[in-house]
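WARN no homologs supplied; continuing
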Amino acid sequence: MYGSARGMARDIGVRLSTGEIGPKVKSNRNFSWLGKMRRYTAILCLAWVLLLAGSPAEAQSLRLVTLSLPPFGFLKGNRIAGLAHELGQAIAEDAGYEVEETLVSVTRGMREVETGSCDMVLMLPGPEIEQHAKNLGDVMEMEVVILGRAGVRLESLQDVRGKRLAQVRGARYDERISRKNGMIVYATENYVQSLKLLVARRVDFALGPRLGLIAAAERLGLPRRALGRPLQLSVLRAALFVSDKTGPEMRRRLAEARQRLMDSGRLSEIVRNYRK
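OK structure emitted
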């Protein structure tokens, strides 16, 4: 579109300079005003074409929700930052969208997907989110662990039975962690709150992604010796979810962008930067 507009502009400019556009009557002064009008009209056309050529169409917007769970999503100064933020931005921008991003809790994020208040979120799969959003594919792997205080026995899930565990509200890390298996689950807002409960001995263990619990320990300034050795439960894959209320064109573009960035290694590169 822009190339043809610029070509039109050049053509008009050449015709102006050669006199092709302008007064055609040379001997009759009564018609001089007509020539001037033609020239003014041509100049206005040229200005309008140049304006169109230099003004690209506005990019379509996409509403991205990032979950407030450091290091996946957090505020850095007054800007949203984090691993999920960078992955989401990369996918949306590759798909050609201008991003409108908000930082919210897990439960609010799922509500916004359900109501269509947001278009896209990156999170672990689960029955709650899958009721209202389409999984467009994996974006990263996450190791899920149980973490206890130093000196507390933690060699298998058997050591967790009858104990209290802190887990982020709305998250579903492992189906074996439940009351029917003799475990008492305390819902928290984030990994930092989970570790605060652990250090204060209000719970016996904290459950979550290793990356998230390590980041929380660093934020709290906890020395490594204060915590025991993590027990790995599983390796889960966080995925790109798009609200069911989005149109097929947006879903197609985002799915293709995710695949391109996976194939090129760009998403893996972003993840590696947070695992150093």
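Strands lie at 60-67, 74-76, 79-81, 97-104, 120-123, 133-148, 164-168, 184-188, 205-209, 231-243.
OK
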